[in-house]
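Bit of a strange request maybe. I'm writing a small parser for structure token strings and I need a real example to test against, not something I typed by hand. Could someone generate the tokens for this chain?
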Amino acid sequence: VQLQASGGGLVQAGASLKLSCVASTGIFPTDTIGWYWQPPGKQREMVAIDSGRGTTNYSASVKGRFTLSRDNRTGNTVYLQMNSLKPEDTATYYCWLQILAAPMFDYRVDYWGQGTLVTVSS
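Reply from user aminoacidic:
Good idea to test on real output. This should exercise your parser:
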């Protein structure tokens, strides 16, 4: 499975961006999807995760400003709508897909996109 992330760019504080992540295969409702970010010089951290159980978890720093969604029409695209961007949101953003490859054994496989850079100027 390949993931292609896009939508990053340079924006001013307060602006909005929408990141997209297209998978080379269909994403099932039971698959876990998410977005992570890696600010310059820091470790990769979770931004938002949708485990397919009806609840999306967000990091405290983005809750209320970012929204993760699935495109049920295409079945292979996830988005991260980012509003009210702040300079501290500057990071490379990675989409993540965890597929339940063997439900009987709860065996899961992780896939990562290549990252898209978001830069927010003050």
